[in-house]
Amino acid sequence: MDEEKLIKSANYVRTELPVRIAHRLMDLQALPYVVVTQEGVARVYELYWSAFEKFRRYPQVTTLEENEAFCKFLESVLDEHAPVIPSLSLGLSLSSPHLSPDSLDAFMRRMLVSRISRRVLAEHHLALSKSLGTNSLNHPEDPHVGIIYTALNLRHSIDKCVALLHGRPHDIVDEIGESVPNRGWPEVIVDGHVDTKFSYIREHLEYIIFELLKNAMTATRLNHRSSSNLPPIRATIVVGENDVGVRISDQGGGLSSARIKSPSDLFSFSHIRNATRMDDTRLGALRSASSRGVKATVAEQIRPWRTEQSNVNSNDKDPEREAGIAPHPKIGLGLPMSNIFTTYFGGTLELVSLDGWGTDVYLRLPKLGTNLEGIEL
């Protein structure tokens, strides 16, 4: 990375982001009036319009000093848009009676895929700017270019997520609000091609793995509440010529529910396919999340847990532990966002429920360099 390439990157981001935002503004304008005026949706429209105007008027970047100012501008816009995911989910949940399931899910997919694409462009440029003058590709442990890690160790990412999840509070409640006995968290056995390394965006991969393992651990605890020992979860890694696969198998009882007809309905934002979208507790949690914002990262997930631990020990000033650990209300975004992250570069996420026994999750991710981002303009 040199000055000329960095300036070129800045101007590409500067001109590309308003184009992608403009398409989503047109999507919002095409919604029925009763939907676009819903709580949450109107807020997102205002955020997008404001960002479009800011980018449209931003002058060309010609020097490193101007790029530094542009990076600060990018960071401020990213922070402003943190409420977009929960606000959209809240607004579309409330609007679900006014849209068909296919229309609602297609709209949400376009909005979320576009949001991911914009964050990838912005965060990649920010990372490139920080690495100017260094050769991060030759980093001995984590070679990377911007936010893309060229030799991402899948086993290490799984182990990292397991360690974070084992450090969370053990107190959970079942679907009717009763406390589940504390038996700790199940072990995760990793097998298969455990030395697999491939090119990918680490933040995306670890968010997906974290969510899938979190669901598997919670289901196993709930299904074996009366057992003294929890059965292990198995994560199997398989590498192909152009893609990498992970199967996560648990004994959590499966996904059978009177409110969910098919496992794939868990990816839906429609109350017709996923009745839990209209639960008062979930809507309340989304309102709360909208006020603070959601960026869909692992660090954001563990922050409330570690905050609770830090409050217990006020002398603990470790910045990592300040990001701390406490239960947070379920807002129903983990699986849908994992599916969006997976399919962004052409991957697949499939849930197979063995009702009465457990669930197998099949994750397939292409090695970066083989697929284009899947954006619908």
Describe the structure.
The protein is α+β, with helices and mostly antiparallel strands. The protein has twelve helices and nine strands. The protein has helices spanning 3-29, 33-36, 41-57, 64-80, 84-95, 101-130, 154-166, 202-223, 280-292, 298-312, 319-322, 334-344; strands at residues 144-145, 148-153, 188-192, 197-201, 233-239, 243-249, 324-325, 348-354, 358-366. The strands form two sheets. Strands 3-5-6-9-8 form a five-stranded mixed β-sheet. α5 (84-95) packs antiparallel against α9 and α7 (154-166) packs across α8. The longest helix has 30 residues, at 101-130. The chain is globular. The two termini are 30 Å apart.
Topology overview:
Blueprint: H1 3-29, H2 33-36, H3 41-57, H4 64-80, H5 84-95, H6 101-130, E1 144-145, E2 148-153, H7 154-166, E3 188-192, E4 197-201, H8 202-223, E5 233-239, E6 243-249, H9 280-292, H10 298-312, H11 319-322, E7 324-325, H12 334-344, E8 348-354, E9 358-366
Parallel strand pairs: 3-5
Antiparallel strand pairs: 1-2, 2-4, 5-6, 6-9, 8-9
Helix pairs in contact: 1-3, 1-4, 1-6, 3-5, 4-6, 5-9, 6-12, 7-8, 8-12
Q: Report the end-to-end length measured between terminal Cα atoms.
A: 30 Å
Mean model confidence by pLDDT:
85
Please tell me what the overall shape is.
globular
Strand and helix order:
HHHHHHEEHEEHEEHHHEHEE
The oligomeric status of these chains comes to: single chain
User: How many helices does DSSP assign?
Assistant: 12
* Largest beta-sheet details: 5 strands, mixed
Q: Which class best fits the helix and strand makeup?
A: alpha+beta
In what range is the share of β-strand residues? 5-15%
The low-confidence parts are: 310-328
Domain Branched-chain alpha-ketoacid dehydrogenase kinase/Pyruvate dehydrogenase kinase N-terminal: 3-148
Keywords: ATP-binding, Kinase, Mitochondrion, Nucleotide-binding, Transferase
Main location: mitochondrion
EC number: 2.7.11.-
